[in-house]
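Private note to self, pasted from the team thread so I don't lose it. Backbone tokens:
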């Protein structure tokens, strides 16, 4: 039986942010950390909805919790926040620490099928299945897992959109800050997919690309995307939000179902994220509290 170990706890916005760790089966038995914020209304008799935040390249479970400006709005809305890590840590695979955009800190929220990475790099299962099961099994954490939504930044925005679109409504809504929206057509995604997946780009196209997934989707969706026009990675063609928007419109999703907003002058940083954090929390609250 998997046991959660409490690492630290801090009171904030009348709620509590707690860091936990546990041995993750999905990540090959490695120790995994996550942060969990519970709002003040959470109690043994009151389970609260949860919003999962996926961070970007080089980040950990701490970036969103400490810099995202999410906790105050989440507290006022009575929503829990779950902050997982971005990759397994300490797998000891040759080459996983050579580049900043692949390997440690860059798990790309997929399940690896290349034999070199398949034992450890299974962030898709870690996020969608393992963490909810482990937290629920603890028995003393009042989260209503029937009310989940998901959001993220950059690589984490890619993860949020693809998990939302591929899990057949495990999540009630999804949003993203500067997501890698069409990774099969950008350098970051191509590098990740050819490294982690036995079938490379072709395998990724069917499962791990938000633009490809929205083009085939027929279900109702609730998606919000923000990106900054001064974002260096946007200018370099890593994000491609226009491709995602076009695919959504071609699939007859209107602006009430898929909204993509360009924010003039904003970059890729947490200054950008924190500016629009409250917008995203309130967007998800519409669906989590229904």
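Design output:
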């Amino acid at each position: 039986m998997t046991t959660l170990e409490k690492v630290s706890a801090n009171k904030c916005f009348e709620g509590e942010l707690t860091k936990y760790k546990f041995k993750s089966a999905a990540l090959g038995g490695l120790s995994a950390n996550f942060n969990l914020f519970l709002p003040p209304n959470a109690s043994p008799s009151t389970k609260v909805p949860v919003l999962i935040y996926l961070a970007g390249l080089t980040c950990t479970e701490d970036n969103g919790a400490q810099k995202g400006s999410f906790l105050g709005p989440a507290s006022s809305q009575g929503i829990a926040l779950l902050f997982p890590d971005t990759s397994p840590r300490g797998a000891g695979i040759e080459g996983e620490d050579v580049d900043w955009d692949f390997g440690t800190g860059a798990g790309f929220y997929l399940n690896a099928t290349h034999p070199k990475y398949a034992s450890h790099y299974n962030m898709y299962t870690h996020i969608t299945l393992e963490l909810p099961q482990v937290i629920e099994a603890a028995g003393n954490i009042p989260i209503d897992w029937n009310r989940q939504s998901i959001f993220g930044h950059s690589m984490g925005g890619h993860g949020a959109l693809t998990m939302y679109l591929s899990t057949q409504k495990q999540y009630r809504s999804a949003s993203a800050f500067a997501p890698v929206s069409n990774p099969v057509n950008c350098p970051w995604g191509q590098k990740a997919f050819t490294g982690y997946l036995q079938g490379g780009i072709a395998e990724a196209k069917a499962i791990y690309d938000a633009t490809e997934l929205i083009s085939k989707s027929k279900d109702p969706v609730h998606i919000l995307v923000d990106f900054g026009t001064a974002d260096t990675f946007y200018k370099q063609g890593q994000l491609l939000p226009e491709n995602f928007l076009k695919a959504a419109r071609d699939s007859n999703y209107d602006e009430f179902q898929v909204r993509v907003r360009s924010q003039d002058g904003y970059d890729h940083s947490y200054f950008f994220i924190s500016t629009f954090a409250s917008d995203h929390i309130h967007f998800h609250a519409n669906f989590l509290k229904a």
